[in-house]
């Protein structure tokens, strides 16, 4: 409890969602970072079945020296693209078991990133910043799709309140720079969605 740690190797696995699920688990266990194994398909000499090497990399070497991103790459992109140096994680909780979220902020810049997965049906993710912080601005909305990542409609944050439609089974990212009234209290996000979702974080 007195020391931070990062994981030097965590598995992506052949499961497209595995890399996101494992990153989610590591964060819940207190890790401050992690390196995906494997980044690319690699010949593992000690494996008796060479076919076991296929599909584990986030990048697939389709032809010699040419790599294509697998779905696992896009599913984990929110963590590696939008959680930037200087950000710290803040509390995020949910009342709906189908939703998991992680929230990060940089208090000196106002940058906020929320990464989540909805394993249930379509929901309206309605949130508000708590702890007295009033934020305004725009969050860019990205979500993973089959074979890529798509930018959806921007999400407005007005007086600390926002709403985003999250489709069934979607891994998503909300990210942007928000302005706030002068406040020395760490922000906390809390919200209730149309399916009874509550998300709170700082």
Key terms:
202 residues, mainly beta, 7-stranded antiparallel beta sheet, 3-stranded antiparallel beta sheet, 3 helices, 11% helix, globular, disordered C terminus
Summarize the structure.
The protein has helices at 18-28, 71-75, 77-82; strands at 7-11, 34-37, 59-63, 66-69, 88-90, 93-94, 99-106, 111-118, 123-130, 135-145, 148-151, 155-157, 161-166, 171-180, 188-190, 199-200. Residues 190-202 have low confidence and may be disordered. The chain has three helices and 16 strands.
Tally of individual helices: 3
Query: Percent helix among the residues?
Result: 10-25%
Please give the largest β-sheet: 7 strands, antiparallel
The whole-number mean of residue pLDDT values reads 78
Structural class: mainly beta
Spell out the helices and strands N to C: EHEEEHHEEEEEEEEEEEE
Number of E-type strands: 16
Gross geometry = globular
**What portion of residues belong to β-strands?**
35-45%
Poorly predicted regions: 190-202
Oligomeric organization of the protein chains: single chain
End-to-end gap? 20 Å
Which value, in Å, is the CA radius of gyration?
18 Å
């Amino acid at each position: 409890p007195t020391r931070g740690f990062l994981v030097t190797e965590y598995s992506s696995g052949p499961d497209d969602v595995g890399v996101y699920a494992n990153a989610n688990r590591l964060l819940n266990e207190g890790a401050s970072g992690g390196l995906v194994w494997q980044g690319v398909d690699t010949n593992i000499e000690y494996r008796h079945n060479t076919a076991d090497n296929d599909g584990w990399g986030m990048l697939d070497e389709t032809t010699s020296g040419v790599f294509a991103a697998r779905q696992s790459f896009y599913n984990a992109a929110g963590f590696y693209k939008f959680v930037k140096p200087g950000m710290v994680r803040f509390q995020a909780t949910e009342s709906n078991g189908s939703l998991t979220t992680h929230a990060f902020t940089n208090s000196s810049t106002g940058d906020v990133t929320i990464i989540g997965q909805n394993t249930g049906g379509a929901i309206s993710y309605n949130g508000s910043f708590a702890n007295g912080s009033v934020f305004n601005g725009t969050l860019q909305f990205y979500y993973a799709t089959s074979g890529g990542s798509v930018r959806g409609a921007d999400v407005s944050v007005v007086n600390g309140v926002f709403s985003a439609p999250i489709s069934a089974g979607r891994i998503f990212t909300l990210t942007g720079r928000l302005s706030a009234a002068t406040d020395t209290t760490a922000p906390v996000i809390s919200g209730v969605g149309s399916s009874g979702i509550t998300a709170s974080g700082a």
